[in-house]
Amino acid sequence: KAGVTQTPRYLIKTRGQQVTLSCSPISGHRSVSWYQQTPGQGLQFLFEYFSETQRNKGNFPGRFSGRQFSNSRSEMNVSTLELGDSALYLCASRRRGGGVVDTQYFGPGTRLTVL
Amino acid sequence: GQQLNQSPQSMFIQEGEDVSMNCTSSSIFNTWLWYKQDPGEGPVLLIALYKAGELTSNGRLTAQFGITRKDSFLNISASIPSDVGIYFCAGQFIGNQFYFGTGTSLTVIP
């Protein structure tokens, strides 16, 4: 079974631009979560989507947004990029059935560099 | 958001030595996961734990779900150079998001 895939793997943008990252979950997984990872802050939870609805949200400004499509694929958008947005953005998927414990799997990440 | 307390923060060990690390939380969890991350890559799942007291092995790795449901432990036996990386714990209460530890950086000296 194919794992979580993320595109692109690397991205270079300049301040003020916007960026869209894509994530395809493992087949059969309906939940997609996004994380930001930086050396100083570690893994920070951005948001989780399940059945095309945002279910959980971390403490990030409104410049960070996401969406999920009917095939469970998800996109994350960051508008008005700042230097501090440079990070590894990780997507993770899980099956997520009501009341069922499950396991989360990560993609390889998108390395975003803001100049 | 909540972060789990993971210790030690870093470890430098000789090849062949055993390694222990742990993770504690102020909240109870129903699931504990342990991941390993190599530089520039996404975390790879090592072990998943679903029941208090559960002890699970994956090769040279053994992890335990604490009885209080507020902690978990990971042991690596007979470390080898490819064990180098950052190890993360993650906890979850059913239906909620996963919370992550701050990571343990492991260096294995040949």
How would you sum up this structure, described in words?
The complex is a heterodimer of chains A (115) and B (110). With 115 residues, chain A is an all-beta fold. Chain A is built from no helices and eleven strands. In chain A, strand 5 (42-50) and strand 6 (53-57) form a beta hairpin. Chain B is mainly beta and 110 residues long. Chain B is 0% helix and 54% strand. Chain B is built from no helices and eleven strands. Chain B has strands spanning 5-7, 10-14, 19-24, 31-37, 44-49, 55-58, 61-65, 71-76, 85-92, 98-100, 104-109. In chain B, strands 2, 4, 5, 9, 10 and 11 form a six-stranded mixed β-sheet that branches. In chain B, strands 1-3-8-7-6 form a five-stranded antiparallel β-sheet, with no helix packed on it. The A-B interface holds A 4, 6, 33, 35, 42-45, 48, 56, 58-59, 88, 90, 92, 96, 98-109, 111 and B 1, 3, 30-31, 33, 35, 40-45, 48, 50, 88, 90, 92, 94-100, 102-103.
Oligomeric state of the chains? Answer: heterodimer
Describe the global form of chain A: globular
Mean pLDDT of chain B: 93
Q: Give the helix tally of chain B.
A: 0
Task: State which percent range the strand residues of chain B make up.
Answer: over 45%
Greatest interface and its residue counts? A-B, 29 and 26 residues
Question: Low-confidence segments of chain B, ≥5 residues, pLDDT <50?
Answer: none
* Morphology of chain B: globular
Helix residue percentage of chain B: under 10%
Whole-angstrom Rg of chain B:
13 Å
Major sheet details of chain A: 7 strands, mixed
Fraction in beta strands of chain A: over 45%
Low-pLDDT residue spans of chain A: none
Share of helix among residues of chain A?
under 10%
